[in-house]
Design the sequence.
């Protein structure tokens, strides 16, 4: 996961290469926190901008873990803020209804997404962090351990627990290959 | 449910890298603006400190000077115990002065009477 250009410093070219490589997996992770594609993209970019601003203090060998950690924290904060706005009645509707299913197939896909969302949302945050990083970003236990600051054994047990709970909520889950 | 259905990979909105570049380039302007604003704000704060620090303010003396509501607010004097009604007969033994307030909707009067 770490870039091999040790001591090279974080320059804009390296940051852009990281963005090209990490944009999609990070987007998929953050999306499972905020469930809105535009907000998820904003948060991923915020993480890159924050790391860029702190580039003098950034160790490029661990910058990917830092980017994921920053994005996860921003996503959690965003989620909490949205919940507060919801309590205060400042948010109209949490759900973004920009995509309207036009066919029966699309409707099925939407229903599946809604069920998955409910199941992922029901997970405790520490389990959700692990399973989202392992399944949506395809990160290894060691990489997740570096991001979350927990031992790899804990990552494994949390992932297994999370997959079991998801399987129960979704009426069975086909065995993961990773 | 199949694993790939549950863990579907979505594509982020297009044009992300261009937007990131724009955001990264915003920074030097913001830093430059801060260089201009920071001394201006610091100067403003310094002026306020100089003005305040130029002469020590004795809050109690200031309240006594203003009298009325300020004294009552600081506990230097007690508020009137009963409602006071001014009548034509009491004109020769009472004095009424309006106390300035910062809120124009609030009117305060200082009342004194000769016994």
Sequence:
């Amino acid at each position: 996961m770490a870039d091999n250009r040790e001591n090279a410093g974080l320059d804009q070219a390296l940051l852009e290469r990281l963005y090209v490589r990490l944009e999609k997996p990070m987007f998929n992770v953050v999306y499972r926190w905020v469930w809105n594609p535009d907000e998820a993209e904003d948060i991923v970019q915020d993480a890159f901008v924050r790391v860029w601003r702190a580039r003098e203090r950034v160790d490029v060998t661990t910058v990917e873990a830092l980017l994921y950690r920053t994005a996860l924290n921003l996503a959690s904060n965003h989620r909490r803020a949205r919940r507060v706005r919801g309590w205060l009645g400042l948010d109209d509707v949490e759900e973004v209804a920009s995509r309207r299913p036009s066919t029966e197939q699309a409707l099925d896909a939407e229903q599946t997404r809604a069920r998955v969302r409910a199941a992922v949302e029901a997970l405790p945050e520490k389990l959700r962090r692990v399973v989202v990083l392992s399944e949506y970003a395809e990160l290894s236990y060691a990489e997740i351990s570096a991001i979350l600051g927990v031992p790899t054994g804990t990552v494994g047990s949390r992932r297994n627990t999370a997959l079991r709970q998801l399987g129960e909520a979704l009426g069975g889950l086909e065995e993961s290959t990773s | 449910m199949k694993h790939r259905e549950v863990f579907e990979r979505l594509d982020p909105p297009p044009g992300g890298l261009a937007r990131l570049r724009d955001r990264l380039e915003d920074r030097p302007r913001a830093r430059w603006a801060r260089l201009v604003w920071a001394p201006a704000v610091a100067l403003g704060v310094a002026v306020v400190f100089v003005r305040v620090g130029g002469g020590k303010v004795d809050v109690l003396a200031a309240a006594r000077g203003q009298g009325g509501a300020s004294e009552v607010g600081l506990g230097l004097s007690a508020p009137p115990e009963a409602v006071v009604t001014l009548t034509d007969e009491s004109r020769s033994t009472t004095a009424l002065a309006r106390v300035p307030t910062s809120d124009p909707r609030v009117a305060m009067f200082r009342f004194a009477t000769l016994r």
About this structure: The first helix of chain A runs from residue 12 to 34. Chain A has a mean pLDDT of 86. Helices of chain A lie at 12-34, 37-53, 63-87, 104-122, 125-136, 141-148, 152-169.
